[in-house]
Specification:
Elements (H helix, E strand, L loop, with lengths): L15 H19 L3 E5 L4 H14 L3 E7 L7 H12 L3 E6 L1 H8 L5 H22 L3 E5 L4 H11 L21 E3 L7 H10 L4 H4 L19 H20 L8 E5 L5 E5 L2 E14 L7 E2 L4 H14 L3 E6 L13
Parallel strand pairs: 1-2, 1-4, 2-3, 4-5, 8-10
Antiparallel strand pairs: 6-8, 7-8, 8-9
Helix pairs in contact: 1-2, 1-7, 2-7, 4-5, 9-10
The structure holds xanthosine-5'-monophosphate.
Amino acid sequence: MSSNLRPESMARITTKELADAFIAEQVAEVRKQVGDKKVLLALSGGVDSSVVAALLIKAIGKQLVCVHVNHGLMRKDESENVIKLFQDGLDANLIYVDATDRFLDLLAGVADPEKKRKIIGAEFINVFADEARKLDDIDYLAQGTIYPDILESIKQAEGKKAVKSHHNVGGLPEDLKFELVEPIKLLFKDEVRVVGEALGLPHAMVYRQPFPGPGLGVRCLGAITRDRLHALREADAILREEFDKNGLAGKVWQYFVVIPDIKSVGVKDESRYEGWPAIIRAVNTTDAMTATIEEIPYALLHHITYRITHEVEGINRVLMDLTPKPIGTIEWE
Ligand code: XMP
C-alpha cells in the first residue's frame, strides 16, 4: 500500500481474521521494503507506536531498534511497563533513555502552554536525534502514523488552523535522512486496536485511554516544578487505580488529574497546611472534537478525595471539572 489515501475497496478491519490478513500483508510488505536493513522507532508506549513495534518485531525481529524516551512527564510506572512488555516480553531491541533532567531543566520557569508544548516537542526530537546519531547503520524510520493523522495534515495543508500544537517525531534534523516505514497509516484507531490484539498485545494496553505527547507536562499547569509534578503523578495513579477497580476504565473515555499552580489554606494535624488542589477530569467522546462530562458516583468521588488528600504530599483539596468541550478543551493546556 503505497498511496496515502485509503482505497475505497479496503474493508474496515473489525475481526481477528481481517486483522490477521492485514498483519500478514504488512509483514510481507515491510520485509520487502527494508530487506536486511535496520529500522528505528520512537516507542512511546502509546497504542499506535506499540502496535507498529509489535508488527515490526514480527516482521524483522531485532532489525527493529526501538528507542523509548522518558521525558520525565510519563505517568506512574509507564516507562517501566514499556520495558517489561517489549524488552522482557517480546525480546525487543530496546534503548531506554531517561531524559527527565534535560526536559525539566528546559521547562523550569516556563508557564505559557504553547511554549511548553513547543519545548517538549523540540527536545523530544533532539533526544531522539542524539540516539539516532549514535547508531550508524540505520536506513529506515518507522512511525505510528494513522489515517486521521493523514486526514489532519491534508486539512492543515488546506489552511485550517490547529487549536494546539500536537507533537510527533516528524521534522528530524537535516543530517538524519531516513526512508519512512508507516505500516498502519491507512488504519482508523478502532482498527489499530483490533490489529494490536491480534498481534497479542494486552487488552488493557491496546484499549488504554489516550495520553497526550507532552504527557503530564500539560496537566501540571503553568511552570512545572518537580514537587508538583510528583504530586500529580501520585494523584493520577490513585484516580486510575480507583476507576479500574470500580469498572469505570472501559466506560469513561479519558480520566485524569490536573494540578494548577495555586495553593490554598488547609489544616492538617491541627496546623495550617497549604497545598495544591487536584482537579479531576473525566470525559466521554467519540472523536475528541467534542466531549461530555461523565457522571461519577459520589461515594467513589469521596473515596478518591480521601485517598488523594491523605496519601499525596502537598494536596489539600480535590475538585471536579464539569466543563464540556466546547467550551473547555479536554486537556487544560
Ligand atoms: P484537547 O485538549 O485538544 O484534546 O481537547 C483532544 C484529545 O487529544 C489529546 N491530546 C494530544 N494527543 N499529542 C497527542 O497525541 C498531543 O500533543 C495532545 N494534546 C492533546 C487529548 O488528551 C485528548 O484526548
